[in-house]
Amino acid sequence: MAIGAGQVIEWFDWTLYASFAPFFAERFFPAGRGPTTALLSAFAVYAVGFLFRPLGGVVLGHLADRFGRSVIFNLTILMMSGGSLAIAVMPTYQQIGTAAPVLLILARVVQGLSAGGEMPTSTALITEAAPAGRRAFYGSSIFVGTGIGVLLAALLGWLLTSTLSQAQMTGFGWRIAFGVGAAMGLMGLALRRSLRLPEPVLQPARTNGEGRTGRRAMGFVGVLRAQATGVLRVVGFGVAATVGFYTLTVYMPTYLSLQAGMRPSNAFMVSCVVLTAYSVLPPVAGLAADRWGRRPVMGWSAVALAVLLVPAVAALSSDVAVALPLLLAAIVLLAAYHGPFPALMSEQFPIETRGLGVGIAYSLVTALFGGTATYVASWLVALGHPLWFFAYVAATFAVAAVTLYALPETTSASSSSYASGRPESGSGSRT
Q: Is the separation of the CB atoms in 142 and 4 below 8 Å?
């Protein structure tokens, strides 16, 4: 519960910036060149957070391997909520000049580092603490928390914009939002500190030339050399996971409003329904993956999205009765893909380097593909080819399906072999 709650707060705080940027952009950037320029500057700072996610994944993942999951588990939520608190009380450009955007960038850097370290730490901690035969089910709580966090941020945005005027939102309403994020972070930290999960026992290193032994904790280069196959596997099936998420949750409301011609209020309603469905479905997929295997559940979902995504998006219209069933079908497939994803990703690495291995692979995927998804979509729309972006997303699921077909099944690996990084090949069928 505490791990899922932490994901809720991490993603709630992460989503706040993008949701409320239109209201605070001119507070941190000079508006002399127009509000559009200020907004573009604010979104450029948003991208800075993505750039620092790989560094957070590497550094915090490595520290989690050396000093324990729980220490970093608490640190990431403190960093994310601390960044929100800093933005909530930060002086504006009119008050301190160019120092304002510099401070905003620093806050986003901290949040980027936090987001980069959260996934590998949470993934390692929850799958290592899960009962035998339930790693995918327990690991699915990570994406449940992600969906709820994005949904709560959207609901807060709707509540504030429905209650406050435009002037009030640009004056202080956005500060309320980040203040709520900081307060939720403190609550999440208290909940996490009350959690008592056993730390995994790392295998001792082989004796070195001087007769000393110790915990095996490889550095960045060491993991790349020893676990290159695991990193490449995660990249192969991870690109679809992150691009699919940003497409169907973050970008889709914009597409419905600007391309499908749907009223913004209806687009918001559709988005909330879709996110609600997404938030409850991953555990079902996790249970299925624990019973029948990660590869069949994720593989067939990937094949379906690769084949059906473009036709489904092409059929979207401003009619809610048409758009909602199509997007619900897509989000069911995405949830099926995401449910076993944390467990499968974790199972690609031995326990001694699991935090760093996951951090390297997933953070790079998120920064290079997830962080650029909305930009690529906007660029292709500007070129007059909006469906080309969804063809690109479908292609990532095709790559994932091929990757999953080539993977050994890890569902039947015993707890000891999973912890030692020597998963036993199961008898799961090919995708």
A: yes
The CA-based dihedral angle spanning residues 175, 180, 184, 186, taken in that order and rounded to the nearest 10 degrees: 50
Q: Which CATH number characterizes residue 149's domain?
A: 1.20.1250.20
The whole-number pLDDT of residue 210 equals: 42
Measured distance CA(148)–CA(139) in Å, rounded: 15
Question: Which residue type occupies 124?
Answer: A
Q: Which whole-number Å values give the CA distances from 236 to 317, 398, 410, in the listed order? A: 32, 10, 16
Residue 418 falls inside a structural domain: no
Token duo for residue 162: 């429905």
Dump pLDDT digits (tens) for 4-57.
Answer: 666 788 788 888 887 788 788 888 887 665 666 777 777 778 778 888 888 887
Task: Please list, residue by residue across 29-66, b when 16 or more beta carbons sit within 10 angstroms of its beta carbon and e when fewer do.
Answer: beeeeeeeebbebbbebbebbbebbbbbbbbbbbbbbe
Q: Length of the chain in residues, anyone?
A: 431
Q: Is residue 351 part of a domain?
A: yes
Cα 149 → chain centroid: 10
Tell whether 261 is covered by a domain: yes
Q: Residue 289 and residue 336: Cα distance in Å, rounded?
A: 9
Q: What is the pLDDT of residue 129?
A: 74
Q: Would the pLDDT of 400 be above 90?
A: yes
Instruction: Check: CB of residue 310 under 8 Å from CB of residue 391.
Output: yes
Q: What is the DSSP letter of 164?
A: S
Q: What is the DSSP letter of 213?
A: -
Q: How many domains does the chain have?
A: 1
Q: How many CB atoms lie within 10 A of CB 99?
A: 12
pLDDT digits (tens, 9 = 90+) for 230-270: 888 999 999 999 999 888 887 887 788 778 888 777 887 88
- Supply the range of the domain harboring residue 376: 2-197+219-412
CA–CA gap between residue 279 and residue 282 (Å, rounded): 7
Q: How far is CA 242 from CA 60, 239, 344, 393, in A?
A: 20, 6, 15, 10
Is residue 413 helix, strand or coil?
A: coil
Per-residue pLDDT tens digits for 302-325? 999 999 999 999 998 888 899 999
Say if 6 falls within a structural domain. yes
Contact, 296 vs 431, CB < 8 A? yes
CB 305 within 8 A of CB 337: yes
